[in-house]
Design goal:
488 residues; mainly beta; seven-stranded mixed β-sheet
Length: 488
């Protein structure tokens, strides 16, 4: 898979922002581990990057393309278009994260009766939950850590007409194919009966390389129209599948119709077990950030499928990108390791700004990776994202320092520094909107609230960062940018 994902297409709208003081998490918290894991690269770096390429190959770096294909040309409506009830006396489900190399975060859960354990990529850029089947593994058409055996679950239900109706999820590089089913899903001790998922029967060659025994699938938590669902929107059947969080909201399980995410930073170390981050379903953990949470309305671009915010501006070392002029939006995506911006802004403005202070900056077109001399980090500028609509709403500035946007790794005695930004943004065909991606590099700096209420909004607050206890682990990671592909 490529470390690049891409291709999405969206329309525009406006964001409204307001600031609130976060509430303390409620009592009766349930804990469960989400884990961040690695996967390997297949692209060849240019001559100046061959040493880095060989080192990354040793640790199994892969460029993950997780672009879920969804066709907006066939009108559809979700079966559950009626807003689900808000759970007032509900609870919070707190899921502890294992962080592996600051690249991919996984969530642990079980499926079936009796329960079968799984670890999947946590992805706010797509909506489906999928797991590899035992049959797929036995035929060498899957390479997962664990596989699901439906014959061992008494609560398993095939809803694909006896496996005669197959579904395909196509990513930027690779695809998976299987059939839809339901079973009991347990997350941190909380059960969801008849949770729909895709039981994968085949992963193509590209996807086999990307997964390569590092995870069991993907758990998508995309916005998908929020509480009202997708209405009068064109999409494949995949876009109609209800996310795990929405299932909990509709069942009245959660205290609030939202979830929040804290990603810890491992840095140039091994795995962080248990304290690599935290996912809170139904609440906010005020111990993980300081100050207030500033909210911005979800912009209904890309048919309101993604957690998207308007970018009013972007500044760096004296340079800037005017978001209002370029019609700029950003998808907030936990399934993307890096930030993605459009190629024009990246090459003509950002790279020169990074070199302006004398830093050695080398960009490699074949891989879209940028290497920076680790001794020059002090010469790099701060980067600032201004989110919100300057005309109709208030805006707020979110700054990343070099220590935030530079990924520094030491492998077999060799230390290298990669820019955590890639030129993989894209432009919507329908209205010319420019789409960026705010991935893990941004999310580690800012605690993020994904709120379905108030018409849908995204909240950000400066996250506390602690080193945490590190444990030795396998050096391997996947650099991925995961978003659903929308063809407008």
């Amino acid at each position: 898979m490529q470390h690049i994902l891409i291709l999405l297409v969206l329309c525009c709208l406006r964001c409204s922002a307001l600031t609130t003081t976060p509430t303390e998490p409620s009592k009766g918290v349930i804990r469960l581990p989400i884990q961040r894991n690695p996967a390997p690269p297949s692209q060849t770096l240019g001559s100046g990057h061959r040493k880095v390429q060989s080192k990354l190959a040793l640790i199994g770096v892969e460029f993950l393309d997780e672009t879920d294909a969804y066709d907006p040309e066939a009108s559809h409506k979700r079966d559950d278009a009626t807003p689900p009830p808000t759970a007032s006396p509900g609870k919070q489900i707190i899921v502890g994260l294992d962080n592996h190399q600051d690249f991919i975060y996984h969530v642990d859960f079980t499926l079936g009766t009796p329960p079968q354990p799984f670890k999947s990529i946590l992805d706010t850029g797509s909506n489906e939950l999928w797991i590899g089947s035992q049959t797929c593994q036995s035929k060498s058409q899957c390479k997962n850590l664990h596989t699901f055996n439906p014959e061992k679950s008494t609560t398993f239900k095939d809803i694909s007409q006896n496996r005669t109706v197959l579904s395909n999820i196509t990513y930027g590089k690779g695809f998976v194919e299987g059939y839809h089913a339901t079973d009991v899903l347990s997350l941190a001790g909380t059960k969801i009966n008849e949770q729909q998922f895709l039981l994968v029967e085949k992963q193509d060659t590209a996807f086999l390389k990307q997964i390569n025994g590092t995870s069991d699938g993907i758990m998508g938590l995309a916005y998908v129209g929020g509480l009202k669902g997708l209405q009068n929107v064109t999409a494949s059947k995949n876009a109609e599948v209800e996310t795990v969080v929405m299932a909990l909201v509709k069942k009245g399980v959660l205290a609030q119709p939202l979830f929040s995410l804290y990603l810890a930073k491992a840095g140039d170390k091994g795995d962080m077990k248990g304290n690599g981050g935290e996912l809170v379903l139904g609440g906010i953990d005020a111990t993980k950030f300081y100050g207030n949470v500033t909210y911005h309305a979800v912009s209904p671009v890309a048919k309101n499928y993604y957690w998207t915010v308007q970018v009013n501006g972007f500044s760096f070392g004296g340079g800037s990108v005017d978001g209002a002029v370029s019609n700029l939006y950003a998808i907030v995506d936990s399934g993307s390791s890096f930030i993605a911006m459009d190629a024009v802004s990246f090459k003509s403005q950002l790279l020169p700004a990074l070199q302006k202070g004398g830093a050695s900056v080398t960009f490699d077109p074949p891989t879209n990776l940028t290497q920076i001399n680790c001794a020059d980090l002090g010469k790099l500028p701060a980067l600032s994202f201004t989110l919100g609509n300057a005309t109709t709403d208030s805006v707020n500035v979110y700054t990343l320092n070099p220590s935030d946007y530079i990924v520094k790794k030491t492998i077999q005695g060799t230390t290298f520094c990669l820019l955590g930004i890639m030129p993989n943004g894209f432009k919507a065909k329908s209205d010319g909107s420019v789409i960026w991606i705010l991935g893990d590099v941004f999310l580690r700096r800012y605690y993020t609230v994904f709120d379905y209420s108030n018409g849908g909004r995204l909240g950000f607050a400066t996250a506390y960062q602690t080193s945490g206890a590190m444990t030795a682990g396998t050096f391997g990671f996947a650099i991925l940018i995961s978003i659903v592909f929308v063809a407008l």
